[in-house]
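TODO from last week: model SHOCT domain-containing protein.
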Amino acid sequence: MMGNGMGMGWGWLFWLLVLVGIVLVIVVAVKAVGGSVRREGNTSRAEGGRPGRSRARNVLDERYARGELTTEEYRERLTALGENQ
């Protein structure tokens, strides 16, 4: 016989919590591994770029600001990126 049914009620709750815990561990692991990957064009001010600009454009701007590129080189590379001003 099954008894008074209390054991079944708590048993499914326990396994449900175990399942939720496993799912949470998987979600946290995926975010930890995939969190370092940045998508192109998804930049923010916190990253030092302007919203809507590609990472390549931000790097180009930084190099130009540091004086690593001449104005001519900067404009050529902007044209190559297809991001003329």
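Done. Residues 49-81 form one domain.
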